[in-house]
């Protein structure tokens, strides 16, 4: 961490929401994920299609953020829209993001961008994705062109979203059939594309996890250098998926430590020198002698099948700060549930404990809730709901309707002093 890094952040705490282009925009026909959604078999339950139509309704989304008292918005810059074919830059896509940045600032919203939120161009996947030795240079070029256009107006830049996710899912109890379906999906994509290895960032097979993450690490360092070369005062880092791993037995402690070493420990060297690290926390895992202990009978669970544990956010923030020595930005936190009453309670209880550790001096610069509205949640498609707003996709209006949890979050933002 550079000694001046914290001075790059705004002098106010960032209270916002996060989103990702493929999950809300719709119509990104040149993305690798779109291609993977249309092979047989596919690991994705259904294609994203128009998603939430945010490519056209983004101003409505910004108005929702402003009207609910938030001062920050994290969204992704989609590489496949900017460079739909290798070497061919779509300036209209850059224009779109340019306008979106300006519109954020006009509304008093601090823009935070993610350069790679899982998706990449189809041409990139056809050439092996992050396994290709040239991937680092290609991604650095993308970061350069983006920052040349909007780097003078963004508040922070996240290079990669959850690049540790493959190991997280594998060690969190992902069933073997899910892993084999990913393998079959990649094989089908390779055959359809007529290439030897069609690869993507969020569809992976165990024997390639280490090589994939090494590709991410190399590309991250190159991206940090590219971003700083253009916009040296913009804080830059990456985000990690961080579960609150805990234990109740001695062998459970050993299993917990193995999980932490594999999922987080390998990233410490890769992030040194960054301005912050992003924490993305949704759940707590409790390890016993036989592995992960399931929730008690009758205990409310989220869409991931784990119990609502509001202490998990504060625990995860403290853990990752102590592990890396870096300031923290909570780049995602939320709950997958159809019961908004549970979400309301979870937000209240989580942020009460979170605010306590921030007041105690843990260097946290912002909190971004996942997510603004119900969206496309990857392999579960539209069955997993984490939004503060519902979206009318059935009638094709894509009307956004705020849930009570949005008002709860707004009240916390308006009344919490950090």
Mean pLDDT: 95
Give the strand order of the largest sheet, numbering strands 1, 2, ... along the chain: 1-2-3-4-5-7-10-11
Order of helices and strands: EHHHEHHEHHEHHHEEHHEEEHEHEEEH
Helix content: 40-55%
Give me the count of strands: 13
What is the terminal-to-terminal distance? 23 Å
Provide the gyration radius in Å: 20 Å
- Largest β sheet strand count, sense and barrel closure: 8 strands, parallel, barrel
Low-confidence stretches: 1-10
| Helix and strand composition category | alpha/beta
Explain what you see:
The chain has 418 residues and is α/β, with parallel strands linked by helices. It is built from 15 helices and 13 strands. The strands form 3 sheets. Strands 1-2-3-4-5-7-10-11 form an 8-stranded parallel β-barrel. A 3-stranded mixed β-sheet has the order 6-8-9. The longest helix has 22 residues. The protein is globular and about 50 Å long. The N terminus is likely disordered.
């Amino acid at each position: 961490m550079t000694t001046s890094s914290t001075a790059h952040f705004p002098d106010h705490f960032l209270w916002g929401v996060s989103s990702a282009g493929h999950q809300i925009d719709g119509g990104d026909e040149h993305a690798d994920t779109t291609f993977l959604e249309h092979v047989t078999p596919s690991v994705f339950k259904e294609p994203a299609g128009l998603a939430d139509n945010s490519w056209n309704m983004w101003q409505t989304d910004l108005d929702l953020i402003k009207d609910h008292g938030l001062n920050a918005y994290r969204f992704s810059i989609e590489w496949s829209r900017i460079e739909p074919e290798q070497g061919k830059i779509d300036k209209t896509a850059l224009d779109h993001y340019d306008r979106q940045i300006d519109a954020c600032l006009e509304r008093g919203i601090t823009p935070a961008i993610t350069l790679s939120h899982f998706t990449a161009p189809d041409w990139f996947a056809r050439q092996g994705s992050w396994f290709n030795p040239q991937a680092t240079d290609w991604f650095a070029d993308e970061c350069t062109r983006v920052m040349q256009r909007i780097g003078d107006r963004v508040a922070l830049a996240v290079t990669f979203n959850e690049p540790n996710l493959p190991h997280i899912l594998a060690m969190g109890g992902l069933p073997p059939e899910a892993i084999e379906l990913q393998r079959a999906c990649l094989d089908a994509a390779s055959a359809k594309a007529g290439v030897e290895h069609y690869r993507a960032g969020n569809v992976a097979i165990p024997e390639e996890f280490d090589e994939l993450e090494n590709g991410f690490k190399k590309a991250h360092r190159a991206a940090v250098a590219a971003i700083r070369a253009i916009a040296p005062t913009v804080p830059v880092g990456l985000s990690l998926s961080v579960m609150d791993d805990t234990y109740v037995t001695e062998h459970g402690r050993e299993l917990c430590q193995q999980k932490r070493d594999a999922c987080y420990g390998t990233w410490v060297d890769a992030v040194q020198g960054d301005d912050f690290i992003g924490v993305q926390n949704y759940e707590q895992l409790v390890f016993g002698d036989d592995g992960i202990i399931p929730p008690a009978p009758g205990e409310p669970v989220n869409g991931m099948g784990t119990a609502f544990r509001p202490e998990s956010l504060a625990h995860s923030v403290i853990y990752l700060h102590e592990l890396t020595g870096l300031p923290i930005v909570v780049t995602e936190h939320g709950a997958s549930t159809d019961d908004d009453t549970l979400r309301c309670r979870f937000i209240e209880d989580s942020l009460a404990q979170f605010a306590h550790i921030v007041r105690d001096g843990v260097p946290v610069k912002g909190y971004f809730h996942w997510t603004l509205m119900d969206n496309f949640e990857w392999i579960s498609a539209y069955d997993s709901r984490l939004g503060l707003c519902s979206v009318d996709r059935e009638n094709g209006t894509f009307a956004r309707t705020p849930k009570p949890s949005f008002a709860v979050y707004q009240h916390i933002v308006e009344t919490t002093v950090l």
